[in-house]
Design brief:
The protein has 305 residues and is α/β, with parallel strands linked by helices. The protein has nine helices and eleven strands. Helix 4 links the parallel strand 7 and strand 8. The chain is globular and about 55 Å long. Bound molecules: guanosine-5'-diphosphate, potassium ion and magnesium ion. Guanosine-5'-diphosphate binds next to helix 1.
Length: 305
């Protein structure tokens, strides 16, 4: 099989790193559309999310992972870590993301997990946050000594030129083989999954640090209706429940006179309408289920591997 300009190349690229270094921001920038939710909170990404981008003859298949959790060994965190380990097992290239100029014990633990067999690029992200550029050269030297990195790339996931350059770097490691996905496909995740993730993103962003990370979203209903008339969009009818651990958290999510939950619903709807190119009706509920994150069966029943 041949791509637009030669034999097809294709391969898997895992994006790994501790929480909050910018893995999901990077995936979205690489794919060119938001498919993985992001926020300043650790634990925002809880699933393995695949995003692809086909450029010329090469299909890049990126796998975003939850940040490797080392703080609490509850059932949710154990499941997140398994997801990360599963993702790095069988890829062509690993992008190990850290914050430029910093390397903490948490980064070290992720590095230990990666092993030696797979080419690994150290991606020093958030370079735009480094104000003293002179400090970066010595830091890069110490990083070189840490591991046999294929390359070290200081960059910013928010800089379009850097993203473009990264394709050139990753492309070198992808073997000649037929594409795994269609040329225009962007993700293997469903709209239903995207809907639940967007609710969780708005929930995290609009509650800030007040709400513990142990809240999740379950989709109770996801129905699609075709357009009634020509020129109209299809309609998605969605009902979702936000699951929290305590009554106090429920009150926090609902907010004063229901202000906050209304806003979570509205922001989710606006964004999903754009991403899915559809009209969206969204109903939101809040339920208390104490201890769900410590309960293995519950963690599974809420969709975690
Ligand atoms: P993840 O937990 O590793 O997936 O990190 P996220 O993608 O959720 O990003 C965590 C935070 O870092 C978010 O607030 C992002 O906007 C921010 N961020 C990501 N990449 C960059 C970057 O290149 N520069 C700056 N300044 N912030 C970034
Ligand atoms: K995050
Ligand atoms: Mg993430």
């Amino acid at each position: 099989t041949a791509g637009p300009t030669g034999p097809q190349h294709c391969g898997l690229i895992a994006i790994v790193g501790k929480p909050n270094v910018g893995k999901s921001t990077l995936l979205n920038a690489l794919v060119g559309q938001k498919i993985s939710i992001t926020s300043r909170k650790a634990q925002t990404t809880r699933h393995r999310i695949t995003g692809m981008r086909t450029i010329g003859p090469t299909q890049f298949v990126f796998v975003d992972t939850p940040g490797f959790q080392t703080l609490h060994a509850n059932a949710l965190n154990k499941s997140l870590n398994k997801t990360v380990q599963g993702a790095v097992g069988d890829v062509d290239l690993i992008l190990f993301v850290v914050e430029a100029g910093s390397f903490t014990p948490a980064d070290e633990r992720v590095l230990k997990l990666l092993g030696k067999g797979i080419p690994t690029v150290l991606l020093a992200n958030k370079l735009d946050n480094v104000h003293r550029r002179g400090d970066i050269a010595p830091w890069l030297q110490t990083m070189q000594a840490k591991h046999d990195f294929a390359e070290i790339v200081p960059m910013s996931a928010k800089n379009a030129k850097d993203i473009e350059r990264l394709f050139g770097i990753c492309g070198k490691y992808l073997p000649e083989q037929p594409w795994f996905y269609g040329e225009d496909e962007l993700t293997d995740r469903s709209e239903k999954f995207l809907a639940s993730e967007l609710v969780r993103e708005k929930l995290f962003r609009l509650t800030g640090d007040e709400l513990p990370y142990t809240s999740t979203v379950v989709i109770d209903k996801f129905e699609e209706e075709p357009p009634q008339k020509k020129g109209q969009k299809r309609l998605l009818r969605i009902a979702a429940t936000i699951v929290v651990e305590r009554d106090g958290h429920k009150a926090m999510v609902i907010g004063d006179k229901g202000e906050r939950i209304k806003r979570i619903g509205m922001e989710t709807r606006v964004e999903l309408e754009k991403l899915a190119d559809a009209k969206v009706f969204l109903e939101l509920w809040v339920k208390v289920r104490s201890g769900w994150a410590d309960d293995e069966a519950r963690v599974r029943s809420f969709g975690y591997e």
